[in-house]
Specification:
Blueprint lengths: L2 H9 L25 E6 L7 H10 L3 E6 L15 H19 L2 E4 L11 H7 L2 H15 L3 E4 L8 H16 L21 E6 L8 E5 L3 E2 L4 E2 H9 L17 E9 L23 H18 L7 H21 L4 E2 L2 E2 L3 H24 L2 E7 L3 E3 L3 E10 L5 E10 L2 E7 L3 E3 L3 E10 L32 H5 L8 E8 L2 E7 L3 E6 L3 E6 L1 E3 L2 E5 L3 E5 L4 E11 L5 E8 L4 E3 L3 E6 L4 E10 L4 E11 H10 L9 E2 L1 E6 L7 E6 L1 E7 L3 E2 L3 E5 L6 H6 L3 E5 L14 E4 L7 H4 L2 H9 L3 E4 L4 H4 L8 E2 L5 E3 L6 E3 L5 H4 L17 E4 L2 E2 L4 E2 L1 E3 L11 E6 L2 E6 L3 H6 L3 H11 L8 E2 L5
Parallel strand pairs: 1-2, 1-4, 2-3, 4-5, 13-23, 25-35, 37-38, 37-39, 39-40, 40-49
Antiparallel strand pairs: 5-9, 6-9, 7-8, 10-11, 12-14, 14-18, 15-16, 15-17, 15-19, 19-20, 21-22, 24-26, 26-30, 27-29, 27-31, 28-30, 31-32, 31-35, 33-34, 36-50, 41-45, 42-44, 43-47, 46-48, 48-49
Helix pairs in contact: 1-10, 2-7, 5-6, 8-9, 9-10
């Protein structure tokens, strides 16, 4: 097979075909003339079915989209410390990376993930049903799927997943009814009638009618089954637990047909026509242009396998041009890039957009044309500018002409590089540069309005004059970011092309070429050391408080910083003024004194540009401009699997003043793991010394009362050699506390009795899962702090992870907990006497709760660490 044919197959892998069956490779060109769309709906990012998406998008060339109600804010994070809103940013980026690999689209609603719950009443209060229904219907009317698949079930144990199934069914009905739900309520998008509604089932035993899909089908072009491709794609969700590897052979997905508007059969689309021939109720001019497009597609399909890639690219250019001609002939306007006309005209407009995008992408690849946009640096202050570069490389055998070349960003003004024609010769490259003005910071759009008071839904601000939520209906993968816009002439045909993003390129020591997309940031960032921390209640406070300032400006500035404090805290200065050099940073220190009562308190900081304030006073203006007052900062984080991310953090320190007692003799040796319990335990003023696992051999353990082994520390081979010394430490009266692990724990030889884990370790997913203290009078729950079930309130993420499946009955069990609808487990806290001491294995996520400054977690942790100390030496440490 000729090379261009294989390339074309790969490039059109996401292009739809009909009927819904695999086609011979030499028929790949015909895929551009068909359209089929499927929308899958789930509650959280992890609910997606990657194998089914791969089978549809890559195997059957269906335009596929995944709608996740939430961004997974309450989920776990196995690779970092991001929680809640920052975790949503990371998980959104992971899903977008998946979509780049499988060719599908990504949508979200305004729902904020507050966690799992068995109670419908909790969901009803947190997620106003009508608001989410409008969001789901808006996505259906924007994407216009023929088929909707609900990935959650109405009988699920989790009420959030039950409501997702209800929303999918209601949206299937209401999306077609403009009377019950007018277009003005759904971003001005007209009614759309999907033809079939399915619900994903666990097995073939579900009530018929069922459609079976074998995602274990082997794809020769990929060299793997679609189930394997889905698993590989799912690995981009690194913040989540790993999924099981698929078995070889048939891997069935069962789809129960819940509703249909066409004749039913045993395929996904039934008798639905998904070809371009179904469009006939359109204006005569558009119909004539559509016939020309069909001819261009047939011409592409009839090309000889021996024709050159440049000739195929020219044919694709003609198809891209024809789609534009048909689109212009249709009386169909857009709402933020989404066709907003009803009937066949709207359906055809969506199909044309897809055909044009795919034809253009394949054209660029086959013609070996590269358009690359770069910037001089990645973080640019709002109101400042950055130099942008655009390079066009022509690796083909024919000259190309550039008619127009521009760059733009969602937060920047557009800039033109060329507005007149220039020719790029074969194997030639040309570069241009201009200054790009950044107008505003690049905030994550869904976080700007905060949450609607009293709910867990994001506040999407609209008005009567503008009721469109553009980002919602566009889809997260198609929201405009920085990009290069070009008009290329190939074979005498002008084709508009959009590529992006503009990125700063850096040669990394280990990862090679690293690209960081340009982002607008506040001119001055304010950051605290931590967004949340502990203080011991009722103890005198006297310490330095640091505010870190960083300037993104290319010019110097003078900034005044002030703190807003709780009533019982006082600073040594109301305001401090510092000079910031261009792109410079400074630390500003305040001395804080006072006492705090138990509870939750906040310290916030505000800064303003002194030069701007002086200008305001001179001109008699009422207040400073928004770009001159600062109360938040930007934290940049690099990842190996997604692009560099910027997290917005308000200059706010949430302080948990906790009433907790700690024995005077408590002295902890902390063996470092993947967690960060060292910081919160230090805030609780415990005597704690941290050691790398490899250095424990030189530590005199007799100086300590307790050894705390961090999450994953036992994976270090150097620690295995210290098992005899650790066991001797426990035998002589010491306490060993082991934070959640799995295989490395059971195989370490450190536990006195065996425990065993499933191949995929169990977890208690619901952070609010009910806890029963089965031995409430046990010393671990009564000294030095009294522990009750209230101490397990307000936990985040999961209740427990890496929970043993079985354990030796000689372990002492203290509590039981479990997700609703599942048997409770007593394996989350296991204790065993070893000589005069004790070894405790804990799968409770106490490390995550300490990082979030949960008061109950602090009390419980101190009790466990003090398990081997004698009663009666409680005390409060001296002030710092």
């Amino acid at each position: 097979m000729r090379r261009w044919t294989r390339v074309l197959i790969a490039l059109l892998a996401a292009a739809p075909i009909s009927p819904l069956r695999a086609q011979p490779a030499n028929d790949a060109a015909a895929h551009l003339g068909t359209t089929a769309r499927v929308l899958l709906i789930g509650t959280r990012p992890e609910d997606e079915d990657n194998a089914l998406i791969a089978w549809l998008s890559l195997g059957r060339h269906v335009e596929t989209a995944y709608l996740s109600l939430t961004r997974g804010e309450s989920g776990i994070n196995t690779i970092g410390s991001e929680r809640e809103a920052p975790l949503a940013v990371l998980r959104t980026a992971e899903l977008l990376a998946e979509r780049q690999r499988d060719g599908a689209h990504q949508y979200f609603t305004r729902a904020y993930d507050f966690g799992s719950t068995p109670f419908d009443s909790v969901v009803d209060g947190a997620w106003p049903y009508d608001s989410l229904l409008v969001d789901v219907v808006s996505v259906v009317r924007a994407f216009r799927p023929q088929v909707i698949i609900a990935l959650t079930r109405r009988d699920d144990r989790d009420a959030t997943r039950r409501v997702t199934a209800r929303l999918a069914a209601a949206a299937f009905s209401l999306a077609a009814d403009s009377t019950r739900l007018p277009s003005l309520a759904t971003s001005r998008l007209p009614a759309w009638s999907a033809t079939r509604l399915f619900a994903l089932q666990d097995s073939a035993s579900s009530a018929p009618p069922l459609v079976g899909v074998d995602v274990g089908e082997f794809q020769r072009d990929l060299g793997r089954s679609f189930a394997e491709v889905g698993t590989e794609t799912r690995q981009l969700q690194r913040s989540q637990h790993a999924v099981r590897a698929p078995s070889l052979g048939r891997v069935e997905r069962y789809l129960r047909l819940d509703s249909t508007r066409v004749a039913a059969d045993t395929t996904v689309f039934g008798m639905t026509d998904t070809t371009l021939s179904r469009f006939h109720v359109v204006p005569a001019e558009a119909l004539a242009q559509l016939d020309t497009l069909r001819s261009a597609v047939r011409e592409l399909a009839s090309l000889s396998p021996n024709v050159s890639p440049d000739s195929v690219a020219a044919a694709l250019a003609r198809i891209a041009k024809r789609t534009g001609d048909v689109r212009l002939a249709l009386p169909c306007g857009d709402e933020d890039g989404v066709p907003a006309c009803p009937g066949d005209a709207g359906d055809l407009s969506v199909a044309l957009n897809t055909i044009r995008e795919r034809a253009t992408r394949a054209m660029l690849a086959l013609a070996s044309i590269v358009i690359d946009g770069a910037v001089a640096h990645e973080l640019v202050a709002a109101g400042d500018s950055v130099r942008a570069f655009v390079t066009v490389y022509n690796g083909g055998h024919s000259s190309i002409a550039i008619r127009r070349l521009a760059a733009s960003s969602g937060t920047a003004s557009s800039v033109f590089f060329r507005d007149s024609s220039v020719v790029v010769a074969p194997n030639g490259a040309m570069q241009w540069s201009r200054i790009l003005l950044v107008l505003s910071p690049s905030y994550h759009w869904w976080q700007v309005g905060g949450l609607v008071p009293g709910t867990f839904i994001h506040n999407f601000r609209t008005s009567r004059s503008h009721s469109v939520v553009g980002q919602l209906i566009e889809g997260e993968d198609r929201i405009p970011t920085s990009r290069v816009e070009a008009t290329l002439s190939l074979g005498g045909v002008d084709v508009p092309v959009i590529v992006g993003p503009l990125a700063y390129r850096e040669l990394g020591a280990l990862r090679g070429d690293i690209r960081r997309p340009v982002a607008g940031v506040p001119p001055t960032s304010l950051l605290f050391e931590r967004p949340v921390e502990y203080e011991r209640a009722a103890l005198p406070i006297d310490h330095l408080f640091r505010v870190f300032l960083w300037s993104a400006r290319s010019t110097p500035d003078t900034v005044a910083v002030s703190l807003q404090l709780p009533p019982t805290l006082h600073a040594d200065s109301v305001t401090r003024t510092v000079a910031l050099a261009p792109f410079g940073s400074r630390n500003v220190f305040f001395r804080l004194r006072g006492k705090l009562a138990p509870g939750l308190l906040e310290i916030t900081a505000t800064a303003y540009s002194v030069a701007s304030a002086q200008a305001v006073r001179r001109q008699g203006m009422p207040r400073l401009a928004p770009l001159s007052v600062f109360n938040l900062g930007i934290v940049t984080h690099e990842y190996p699997h997604v692009p560099t991310l910027q997290f917005v953090r308000f200059a706010k320190d949430r302080i948990t003043a906790v009433d907790v007692r700690a024995p005077r003799g408590l002295n902890v040796a902390y063996v470092k793991g993947r967690d960060d319990v060292q910081t919160p335990l230090g805030q609780l003023q415990l005597s704690l010394h941290a050691f790398e696992p490899s250095l424990l051999s030189v530590v005199d353990l007799s100086a300590f009362s307790t050894v705390l082994i961090g999450t994953g520390a036992l994976e270090n081979d150097a620690l295995a050699a210290e098992t005899p010394a650790l066991l001797n430490f426990a035998q002589r009266g010491g306490t060993i506390v082991i934070l959640p692990g799995n295989a490395e724990v059971s195989g370490s030889g450190l536990l006195p009795y065996p425990i065993a884990f499933d191949s995929v370790p169990s977890a208690v997913r619901d952070p609010g899962a009910i806890v029963h203290l089965t031995d409430a009078k046990n010393r671990l729950f009564t000294w030095p702090n009294v522990i009750t079930t209230a101490d397990f309130d307000g936990w985040i993420g999961e209740r427990a992870r890496n929970v043993p499946a079985t354990f030796d009955p000689r372990y002492q069990t203290l509590l039981s907990t479990g997700d609703a609808g599942r048997p409770a487990t007593a394996a989350t806290l296991l204790a065993a006497r070893v000589g005069k001491g004790m070894i405790i294995y804990m799968s409770l996520t106490i490390d995550e709760q300490l990082a979030a400054a949960n008061p109950g977690a602090a009390r419980l942790m101190i009790n466990l660490l003090a398990a081997g100390l004698p009663r009666g030496n409680e005390g409060r440490p001296q002030k710092r």
